[in-house]
Amino acid sequence: MHSRRQELDAPTKLVGFFVGTAFLFLAALFVGDTIGPAAPATAAASHTGHDVHDVHDGESSIPAGLQATQDGYTLQLDRSVAPAGADVPVAFTIRGPDGAALTDYDDMHTKELHLVVVRRDLTDFQHVHPTRDASGMWSTALDLTTPGPYRLFADFTPAGGENITLGAELTVPGEYRPQPLSPPDVTSRVDGYNVTLAGAVAAGEESTVASTIEQNGREITDLEPYLGAYGHLVALRADDLAYLHVHPEEGPPGPTVDFTVDAPTAGTYALYLDFQHGGVVHTAEFTIEVQEGQA
Questions:
Q1: Cβ neighbours of 263 (radius 10 Å)
Q2: CA 232 to chain centre
Q3: What are the φ and ψ backbone dihedral angles of 21, each rounded to 5 degrees?
Q4: Tens digit of pLDDT for each residue in 161-209?
């Protein structure tokens, strides 16, 4: 995951939890000013993900994943600080409007709940599927080898309800050296595959973009279903980590998989495209710029 980003050459080390947290706050304020020029093609969004003051279809909304409570549902982590390690247990509960742990979910893309985890500098992306016990407690293990602040997104649908994405912060104490987001690029190389995005996205408009996957110069036409689809895309708006989530349109297992995109605002987005081939799930990473629409 670190191949597309280089560490900042900062002579001053940030030591300890409180210093790292202070640096994070400043980095969050200025990350939008450090991004490179716009890319001509991209993919992003669905599920919504607007700024608190964004207007989309004449309505304002709160960004997906930026709050721990929405519509009466609350994401409650078992802890806010976790030790560094490659296999750290993490547990959480989704509490419903009545305050009780939620135990009744609708499946979404073959799972009751998707947990997406990313460090605040948009590195160390993880997409996992925790297990739930009878009491409603979810548990999983995360790779928290690298210290720093992490954002956790619980993406789920209460039985008979609407999809919700809740977010929470988890800090791994230690020296935090944020890495800069790579410049916009519509080509990603991962595990010997070349993945390319084609199409253009404008804020507030439905757009179609296509991903094409190649290996050793050969287009892949035998992608395997992953979570009930031939691709799974997560997008995070770089300035505030607003959460966007989209799945592909129906079609053959390659070489091209189309996505319908509805990005709420212009700006810089980090994209993570999961696909399965040869029995292995791979994640291609992109940085893109969404332009203003014609509205």
A1: 30
A2: 10
A3: -65, -40
A4: 999 999 999 999 999 999 999 999 999 999 999 999 998 878 888 878 8
Residue given tokens 């190389």 in the structure block = 189
Nearest to 232 by CA among 263, 276, 280: 276
Distance (Å) of CA 23 to CA 62, 123, 149: 26, 16, 10
pTM score = 0.79
Q: What is the C-alpha separation between 111 and 92, in angstroms, rounded?
A: 17
Separation CA 150–CA 269 (nearest Å): 17
- Long-range Cβ contacts of 247-252 (<8 Å, 24+ apart): 247/46, 247/109, 248/211, 249/208, 252/221
- The DSSP 8-state label assigned to residue 26 in this structure reads H
Q: Is 44 exposed, middle or buried (CB count within 10 Å of its CB: 0-12, 13-18, 19+)?
A: buried
Question: Quick one: CA dihedral 54, 59, 61, 63, positive or negative?
Answer: negative
